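ok trying again, last paste got cut off:
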Amino acid sequence: MATNDPSEGKVVYRRVGATEPSRGKRESRFDLALVPLIVGFAVLLLVIILLGNLSVRRIEDTSRSALSLEQ
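nice, full thing came through this time. structure:
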């Protein structure tokens, strides 16, 4: 039998997971690319809360000033 016989198939793709035994290691449930997205969202949320608190303080200061000028 010749080695270039077209009836014999040539393996061009092999599944890696099928040949390696499982190591008992769990696959992560989320992609590592989500970590920067989650951290960025948390930082954005903190900035919004901080700016909200600062604006409330300014409004209260302005309200006190207006009340004292009125009196």
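cool. The chain has a mean pLDDT of 82. The longest helix spans residues 34-70.
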